[in-house]
Queue: 2 jobs
Job 1
Amino acid sequence: MGELISVVIPVFNEAAGIQSFLKKELIPTLKNLKENTEIIIVDDGSTDKSLEIVKNYTFPRRITVRIVALMKNFGKELALTAGLREAEGDAVIMIDADGQHPAEEIPRMIEKWHKGAKIVTAIRGSNTTKHKLGSRLYYILMHKAGDKNLIEGEMDFRLLDREVVDDFNQFTEHNRLTRGLIDWLGYPQEYIKVQTKDRIDGAPTYSIKKLATLAGDSIVSASRTPLIIFGYIGLFIMAITFVPGLFQLIQEYILGDPLKLEWGGGVAVSLFVAFLVGLVLISQAMTALYVSQIHAEAKNRPLYVINKTKSVGLKNGKK
Ligand code: UDP
Ligand code: MG
């Protein structure tokens, strides 16, 4: 029988580049492997011709292909999750469809796996992509925010052993970061340094895509919007009371009221109270964010919905 390697590819509106990625990068690499291979393409509700393109693509015979078509756009993390649940390989590799992840590194990952690695993650070596500033900023912020496990340049291009995939498939949270969950499992990880590339289609659509996701997020979460608005009001109150408050403090109590404003204690107290109200409103908005998260998880909806009519060759996707 031999070993089976699964390759999971999340795809969202990649019509411009997916064909060239499959033809020039992924398939030539897979053809040279001695292991059996299967490709799981997860169409994350693409609105362009991505799904048609992959359906019409002629894959080499010895590569099994299954297409998981999601009902709508659920986001990359859930698309990956759907793919991992469908994959049956002894090792599963996740790779982006836009050509930014160098498929030619797959043999190196497999080699490490054969030597016993349970997780092999690609990290960005020195590179030329426009990604650099953005990811550097992301890294700094996340690190500051307490995500100490984050390794700079870590990519969503990795190999997972079957054991790890089985554990990963137990997670039930909706709001998920694949990397974070994998870290949480606690398996030792190995890294390979790789050279990233630009998107095949050249257009840096990712920023627009991300903005759209953000916008979508805020519309969908309308139920918490009122409290968030109060948060902004709080921020505003704090900002407008802080300056005159400081001014009064200095001019009256430190300098001894040289301007003869004679504002007195009343003004000081009201400014201070307004400032505190601002603080309270902000912290209330923060609480709202947490509660809305809890609410979203507690509803315990399915993570995604598979469009069975559009999918091809599903084995595990019936749930
Ligand atoms: N993707 C997806 N669903 C989305 C957004 C992206 O499945 O809602 C896929 C996309 O097709 C690509 C991968 O996830 O294969 C990474 O997306 P992108 O290149 O936009 O992200 P970045 O490279 O900025 O991390
Ligand atoms: Mg990309």
Job 2
Amino acid sequence: MKIITSAAELKAILANERAGKRVGFLPTMGALHEGHLTLARRAVSENDIAVVSVFVNPTQFNNKTDLETYPRDVERDARLLESVGVKYVFTPIAEEFYTKEEMEQRFQFDFGGLDQVMEGKFRPGHFNGVVQVVSKLFQIVEPERAYFGEKDFQQLAIIRRMVEVMKFNIEIIGCPIVREASGLALSSRNALLTDEQRKIATNIHAVLAESATFYSQTTVGELHDSVIAAINRHEGLDVEYFDIVDGRTLKSIDSWNASEDIVGCITVYCGKVRLIDNIRYK
Ligand code: PAF
């Protein structure tokens, strides 16, 4: 496995090596866990060359403390990626990766409204940064396939739109959420939880999973309110939003008949740590 920091070097290596081969790409912000490694294994097994980027992208953070405290351990990440057979790890340096203008001006993209809800509403500008970095990475790596986790449900919908709008010839593969045995969705941010918080945070998925067993017997509004109340009942958990949406348009629905693709997306603060999760109803 080779670690590369220069975009030009990665482009040159891939140009030289890729004839007749399929490149699979996994963009990450590092602090890798089993969820990332599951995606990395797929990128390795389904392609000839697997490339993973490890880059804490500053332009997608709208909170300075969040950016500063985001967990980082590139050496450990590289060891893990090597152990699953990844060929190239791309770890750019922000000041080289972006021009001064790119760092300072908000990247413009027509989200078709997908950024106006949920994460987009609570983290203004976040998805501009995500589209900016992923489109730039796609132009460098030019993969045949790219892998994204379904935990970041809105991000996946936005990446699919980006591929369509920007006409990337890349297959986007959404991968199911990987969970601890306790049900807690794996996330790099879990590293910031104390042991006690980790236990409390398991209630997020427990409540969501239970709600999926009886959703059709209640109204969307009642289910929405009962999920929030059931999670907030646990000391240390504070729901930021819970939206029950059409899985394609991300628009809130008000009846279970409104769509055949219905997902509940949630963000919960566990102490100061912001955790996201989702559950499929239909
Ligand atoms: O999901 C993430 O970790 C990031 O948003 C991504 C896709 C790597 C872009 O920085």
